[in-house]
Amino acid sequence: MLLEIEDVSLLYGRIQALHGISLTVDEGEIVALIGANGAGKSTTMRAISGIRPVASGSIRFAGEDITKLRADLRVRRGLCQAPEGRGIFPGMTVLENLDMGAYTRRDKAGIAQDLARVLELFPRLAERRKQPGGTLSGGEQQMLAVGRALMSRPKLLLLDEPSMGLAPMLIQQIFTIITEINQQGTTILLVEQNAQQALARAHRAYVLETGRIVKSGTGADLLHDPSVKEAYLGVA
Amino acid sequence: MTTTIDPPERRETAVDKLRNGREAISERWHHAPRWVRWVLLVAVIAFFYALPNKEFYQYLGPIPTPGANFTQVMFTVSIYVLLAVGLNIVVGFAGLLDLGYFGFFAVGAYTVAVLTSPSSDIKTLWPWLLVVPIAIALTMVSGVMLGTPTLRLRGDYLALVTLGFAEMIRIAAVSSEFLKGQRGFNQIPHPPGQYADGRPVFGVLDARPYYWLVLTLIILVVIGVRNLTHSRVGRAWISIREDEDAAQLMGVPTFKFKLWAFASGAAIAGLAGALFAGKQNFVNSQNFELLNSIIILAAVIFGGSGNIVGAIVGGGLVAYMIERFRGIELFGVELYEYRFLFFGLVLVVMMIFRPQGLIPNRRRAAEFKDRRKEVIVGE
């Protein structure tokens, strides 16, 4: 098991955002976490990446208990998150942003190799390599966030709403790239509101409602589950 | 489905041109050949070394201050420039709002005073040069002590705590028996050095050697800071300023680097304080008003926070302009009395037309544009 979350609760002040969540991610998988606005998807991500401390429960990564480990040290262990929305560095150029992704690494040759790979995955970024991140369009910023996370060569890539605010064409494109990244050997945990795409691409998925996991199964199973269909896929 | 709507196209107005960070001067500078830049740099440095000589500045028209000894003014200006360079690390590079920066200056000055002055209770009477590194180290320690609990928090806490810190130092200076309050410490020794005929280099009357000393130290500090900002440390600072969460998600130990920025900034203020004490010969509680912290912060922002040249220009201009008002009368009113009114006006106008400062940092300019976009979207 690459990632194992057991009974994790998390508080924002006095508001409990997560009520005892348990989930697992196996090596090589794409696992999706779907749910409505405010269900606690992004909060779960923050707990895993270490940006928010958990109130109780445990998080294990590659056999090690990382519940209390600092966020930057989790990155060094091979766990990297592409933050939601505008989480790029607006004043740094595209290349400088990607370079920040490799902050924890010192193997120059490997970094150059990964940079070439990212620019190949995202040709738009290659075109705009000298441009400040803040001047990119929403879709390009999203690609930059994913590309930057890849630069740390993570074992587990956490993607928070990679399709948010994108045009349908671009959504297709970014999910194709996600599948490709996975096939090249990176395990992916994905948070999405676009349940249709996420379930179609994921090996397994969890449904989150008001801070609790209410359903889990393979992507295909959930795609055909009547209640999931009604609540998240917009079909009666 | 959401779609992004571009704000309607506007024609570029004069205000936009002012706002745009990429103005002709900096562009030209960056495109000039290497040797041209070196020649200009050497000329500017030579100009500032020559500036406090009467034989030189008497030909400079309105530049010398009418109401005060110009050489003394230049010393004050140089201290402010050093402080601005230091504060720029904290505010400009790491993006930490420090409202009590002058407090560290006070720690540096008082360390020198207590350890060298005969009026001090402990009577160590050490020489100035020996105490300077101690002053820097102590300031750094006080920076770490102040930063450790507060830098873990986000946002405005740091601003409040630093504000409180500077006030604490001031009140301690005013009321503590050990720090002598208004009476202060006298006979603080000067920096060492003698001319061939036995006269000391750093005397009481001539401020020039002190100015040259500070100017030289500014150059050294700037070289150091520049190297630091081009290293991994600098990249970490910038990433923290731009997006602290994202920086942490990229594996940057944000707390550690914030503490580093805070402590290095404090150390530079400590150095400035030690230089000040060594020149003044006398230190008392009136030297450390809260207003000074605000002036330096405003100077950094005015010059262009995040840019070393901006900080130098800002610190120098602000300190100089304040002194320049001295001795000018208009309709029977001494303008010096109203210096902060003008200062405030300039700041307000500046924030409207050029919030990124006189000489902005390229990245900072982009960050400002990015935030303006966010504001437009949020409207």
UniProtKB/TrEMBL annotation, chain A:
<keyword id="KW-0547">Nucleotide-binding</keyword>
<keyword id="KW-0813">Transport</keyword>
<dbReference type="InterPro" id="IPR017871">
    <property type="entry name" value="ABC_transporter-like_CS"/>
</dbReference>
<dbReference type="GO" id="GO:0005524">
    <property type="term" value="F:ATP binding"/>
</dbReference>
<comment type="similarity">
    <text>Belongs to the ABC transporter superfamily.</text>
</comment>
<feature type="domain" description="ABC transporter">
    <location>
        <begin position="3"/>
        <end position="235"/>
    </location>
</feature>
<dbReference type="InterPro" id="IPR003439">
    <property type="entry name" value="ABC_transporter-like_ATP-bd"/>
</dbReference>
<dbReference type="InterPro" id="IPR052156">
    <property type="entry name" value="BCAA_Transport_ATP-bd_LivF"/>
</dbReference>
<dbReference type="InterPro" id="IPR003593">
    <property type="entry name" value="AAA+_ATPase"/>
</dbReference>
<dbReference type="Pfam" id="PF00005">
    <property type="entry name" value="ABC_tran"/>
</dbReference>
<keyword id="KW-0067">ATP-binding</keyword>
<dbReference type="InterPro" id="IPR027417">
    <property type="entry name" value="P-loop_NTPase"/>
</dbReference>
<protein>
    <submittedName>
        <fullName>ABC transporter ATP-binding protein</fullName>
    </submittedName>
</protein>
<keyword id="KW-0029">Amino-acid transport</keyword>
<dbReference type="InterPro" id="IPR030660">
    <property type="entry name" value="ABC_branched_ATPase_LivF/BraG"/>
</dbReference>
